[in-house]
Amino acid sequence: MLTFFSRPLSMAYTPCLFLVLVLPGLTLQALSLGVGINYGQIANNLPSPSRVAGLLNSLSISKVKLYDADPNVLRAFANTNVEFVVGIGNELVANITDPDKALQWLTTHVQPYIPYTKITCITVGNEIFSGNDTTLITNLVPAMQSLHSALQTLGLSHQVNISTAHSLMVLSTSYPPSSGTFKPDIQEYMQSILNFHAETNSPFLINAYPYFAYKDNPNNVPLNYVLFQPNEGVVDPVTGLSYDNMLYAQIDAVYNAIKTLGHPELEVKISETGWPSKGDENEAGATPENAEIYNGNLLKRIEMGQGTPMRPDVPLHTYVFALFNEDLKPGPTSERNYGLYNPDGTPAYNIGLNGVLPGYHSGSSSKVRTGLWCILSLIIAILI
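Above: the chain sequence. Below: its structure as tokens.
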């Protein structure tokens, strides 16, 4: 039986260099994506946020998810029309239950950047139900409620919503999708969360990784099924719906769990999904080839505006994990190799993303072009 479980050379930036690197004809046309990206920063070799803003602009990516509310990032993306999800770490959840501290957090980390930087969502904690911290679990909904009330006080509740991201460990059953249910010991909490989403018109966020299901059981989980490759698929015996990939089955299991608790109207968004390009010996499938296939096929599905079999008319909103490989992340090798890009701006593998990181170039032709355009810019400045 298939299981659908999963756990969860740089140079200083100058306007002259940026001008050169984004001029038509000097770089390949970027692929326009209706997709978001997770921008993690657990690394010591990443480009500056201003350069990252240039990279995402060249990719036409307009949705970014952070795990904090880094002021350097929020300032760098001012007036870029990029929509941000910002995060509050698990360690801060208890403080945010206090309405005054929730208001203070917003006036420090969110309000100063609006409207120049578009902040549309705040996630309170990450995968809280994956652990056994009962205090953290108990504080989650009160913290979400305090933040929402504070947003109302500031007049921001119509443009910023509150959510929290879950791993698929919140499910007790996920196969077939029509039997998806939340774990009995957290159903009371999940009911409160769903009620909150319904009242505030905010999305339910899920981190879904078919990679983990394959890694844990490579002999029984067909690789083509998790990579969106041609395969026989799986038919849900209850609904008769056919699934040709695991990600859609995972999401529909979540939809069914939500419906079981009385909220079929809520939208599920994928806050994380991805595939590592490198792993340890015991991490089956963690290769550049598989990462290229998974993320490449995922982007094609998103561009098609597909929904899941259970929600065919609701296109999936997805945040790919992640923008860069992050060299300081703890854990197995795979954790440091989910990036679409290396920190120097080169693609980790080829899925047709021809973006340009400002300030990075290679090869003699690039150097010649850089020199020519810098001279041209200097002449123009003198004439003006």
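The longest strand covers residues 118-126.
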